[in-house]
Amino acid sequence: MIIIDFIKTDGLHTYSDALWLEDNNTFTNDEIESMKQKRFDDWLAYITDAPSE
Amino acid sequence: MAARFWVGGTGTWDTTTTTHWSATSGGAGGASVPTTADIVTFDASSGSGTCTTATGATCSTLTISSSVFLTLGAAFTANSAVTLTIGVVNLATFTFTCTTFNSNNANSRTLAFGTGNITCISSGTVFNIATTTNLTLTGTPIVNLTYAGSVAVSVSTGVTVGISDQISVNITAGTYTFSNGANSFFKNLNFTGFSGSIANGLRSIYGNLTIPATTTITSGTSPTTFAGTSGTQIINTNTVTWDTPITFNGVGGTFQLGSALTMGATNGTISLTNGTIDLNGFTLLCISFLTLAGTKSILFNGGTLNCTASATNAFNNLSSSAGFTTVAGVGTGTITMTGAAAKTFQGGGSTFNCTLNQGGAGVLTITGANTFTNITNTVTPCTVTFPASVINNFSNFNLNGTAGNLVTLNSSTSGTQATIHYTGTGAIVCDYLSIQDSNAT
């Protein structure tokens, strides 16, 4: 397993995550960057559209 | 919605492995991996060891009361409330997202922040460690509150053993009322991005306070204490009016203004017990300023302390002058007494490396045998009353009236002289004075 840690921020919110990829994965760097961005975008959308308890 | 229980001790919580998931406590593994709709429990039947989360691990409600350590291997999102009753949660370097986080109990538990953070996204009591008995915090504790709505949000952070363990809270959005538990303790408290109101509440801040101009602060009598004991804590209120008492009480700490600090007219009093207030060129406007027993200092750096009260305690260094010092720093500092009616500067016999300014129409009475860099006035006519039979020292003296609007200098006891002693190092510029019972030496 290859684990790629990354941090992304929009200036106000900071997201620290990691991608767990198979050793033999064939993702390109661009594809990996896109996965990072999607993880961040999805998280940002989730936290900024939160319900009240 | 299904219940999922972790079983079998050490393992990885990823999106595919079912080995460690059971539909019942202590039951057989092989149940489906939890989704955002499933309730996950780590309990006494989970075994022991470490559960390491991988990319995409998620659940709904998460309860941890177990010998299994939950360690993040990637960002983790619980789609509902998280409760840590017994056990260890290790954030490592990652973001742990949940609606609310509660560990308000007295069981043995550890919250290892590492360089990660907890992000609470909902309203209500979103982070609660009011009871810190048997709670161990490690790493750099950071909690982010991201709820963007208008329903009230509160946090309760009880005192922790070490100052460095106090929780930093970032409030990044919302128009709600933010409040803290009965007596909460924070490292940094940062409201950047917040546009709501901050309720009055008893709190201690060991780090920086940042309040944007979009915030309002509710008036109240519960004090905020700045308590950092080392380094420099920065207080930036963006001149939002702060109408609750403030206490500075951190032995060895420096509390530096990052903007003017404007205290409210009802509850805006300052108490200085321990530590240094660095005005940093800004104006600290308060009703009254009181020193208490401790080692304390005002560092002006060109700043101004403006005491607005028309009262005998407008500036009160009478009882706790021991251990009190003032430092000019860069530029000329000022203490201005702006009460429109009679007010008293109770110097306590200290040395004031600043200018004392008569800035209000009411009589300014000085008590104590003090030493000042300068004395000035910005209103005329006005009166400055010096203490009878006592010497006050000045290295500059700049009291000036105008034709028909004199500055009156007199003694606190009619017929008994007060002594104004010029130390011979600065300028004396005086005009249009009315002088009685005063001895200039």
Description of the molecule:
The complex is a heterodimer of chains A (53) and B (441). Chain A is an alpha+beta fold. Helices cover 36% and strands 30% of the residues of chain A. Chain A has one helix at residues 29-47; strands spanning 2-9, 14-21. In chain A, strands 1-2 form a two-stranded antiparallel ribbon. Chain A is elongated. With 441 residues, chain B is an all-beta fold. In chain B, 0% of the residues lie in helices and 47% in strands. Chain B has no helices and 47 strands. In chain B, the strands form three sheets. Chain B has a 16-stranded mixed beta sheet that branches. Chain B starts with a strand and ends with a strand. The model of chain B has no long low-confidence stretch (mean pLDDT 96). The chains are: A alpha+beta (53), B mainly beta (441). The A-B interface holds A 3, 5, 12-20, 39, 43, 46-53 and B 14, 54-55, 73-75, 77, 81, 93-95, 97, 99-100, 115-117, 119, 121-124, 126, 144, 146-149, 151, 172-173, 192-193.
Sheet with most strands of chain B? 16 strands, mixed
Quickly count the helices of chain B: 0
Biggest β-sheet: strands ordered side by side in the sheet of chain A: 1-2
How many beta strands in the DSSP annotation of chain B?
47
| Coarse structural class of chain A | alpha+beta
Task: Tell me the helix content of chain A.
Answer: 25-40%
Q: Over all CA atoms, what is the radius of gyration of chain A?
A: 13 Å
N- to C-terminal separation of chain B?
88 Å
Q: What is the CA–CA distance across the termini of chain A?
A: 38 Å
| Morphology of chain A | elongated
**What are the low-pLDDT stretches of chain B, counting only 5+ consecutive residues below 50?**
none
Give the overall shape of chain B, derived from the CA principal axes: elongated
Count of runs of 4 or more consecutive helical residues of chain A: 1
